[in-house]
Amino acid sequence: MGTRKTPAFKPLLIAATALALLLAALFLAANTPSEFVSHSSAKTRVDASSSIVGGTSTTASNFPWQVLITANNKEFCGGSLIHPMIILTAAHCLVDDYGNYYEDRPGLVFRAYTGRTRVNAGGVELDWHSARVDPRYDAIRTVYDWGFVSLDSPASAPTLKIAGPDELPLWEPGRKATVTGFGDLYDGGPSSTVLQRVTVNVLADSGCSRYGAAFDGTTQLCAGYIAGGRDACQGDSGGPLSVTGDKGARRLIGIVSTGKGCALHYFPGIYSRVAEPELAEDIQSEVELIESLDDFPDAYSGINVIGSQARPYGCAASIKARKIAEQRVESSERALEAARRTGNRDRIEAAKRSLKNAKNRLSDSRDNSERICF
Ligand code: 4AZ
């Protein structure tokens, strides 16, 4: 779907828009609902590209907040349960390019599930109430590409919080993140029957420089590999880009949004930048608005969807290692004092060498925990 959004395509898009409107009207009049879905879903409205490429099969128990959204019982999009009564997904999974809600189209039935390892069996259906997208969503530029599905009754699955402002180290460029979904297995290929996961690198904006002005670093996050090979693809849209912190903390840092093809060299995936503190605050406000508009019970109102205090994976271990290194320095210092009291030159020299080693190790381990924790 990325190519469609490059500036070169804009004049064409305007002409195509008029034509598409006309065709859509004819199409709606002439087609059955199931054909309609297969031609208008988030999965097929874009250029040839795929879902999770280069990943491995996983199970819903590893990603219990993963949501599968189906349209007329076909895989349509992913999502994340961020609140017991709210799914966060991509805006482009909920509205068409003119801002019309798919859920309002006659003959189109949307369902959402958690707990599905296989695309068409198991799990729990969520009680779909109403879809709403961020008012700033722009289908041409794919900015602010997120929206919400409120539920009529709370889901029992655990939620995934958005990484908070004190958790920026979890997703700075260079960190590993995981993207999951039932999307296409390769560019233009079939979607997956089993939930897939793949590890990608969080990249600086410069990693998406080949997209030119089509990449917007204020609302989009670049993640994947410059070399290609592993990526989200069509049908993964709306699904979570998540990170694992220490003590098993999991956080949402992005939403599968767009890209040029899938897993192509120089074209990493583009995700909605939901953990950027300002944007996360916007999402929190939107959640609060939905809680009130939809009259959620008190027990499901005022819920904080933003996490705090999670530390990057490996930080706790690196701090333990540093404390041990500190103790080694202290005991080496005591050993040196003891050696000096004996007056034995050889013993003093040996103790000095081991103190020096211990200090070097402490310095390495301080650098290591700085690198991992901050
Ligand atoms: C899509 O069409 C799509 N490679 C999603 C993600 C990516 C490409 C396309 C990223 O929904």
Keywords:
374 residues; disordered N terminus; Thrombin, subunit H; binds 4-(aminomethyl)benzoic acid; 2 domains; 15 strands; seven-stranded antiparallel sheet
Tell me about this structure:
This protein has 374 residues and is an alpha+beta fold. The protein folds into 2 domains: 1-305, Thrombin, subunit H (Beta Barrel), CATH 2.40.10.10; 315-373. It has helices at residues 10-30, 33-40, 277-293, 315-342, 345-373, and strands spanning 56-57, 66-71, 74-83, 86-89, 110-114, 124-126, 128-133, 147-151, 161-162, 176-181, 196-202, 220-224, 240-244, 250-258, 269-272. A 7-stranded antiparallel beta sheet has the order 6-5-2-3-4-8-7, with no helix packed on it. Strands 10-11-12-15-14-13 form a 6-stranded antiparallel β-barrel. The longest helix has 29 residues, at 345-373. The chain is elongated and about 95 Å long. The two termini are 35 Å apart. Bound molecules: 4-(aminomethyl)benzoic acid (4AZ). 4-(aminomethyl)benzoic acid (4AZ) binds next to β14.
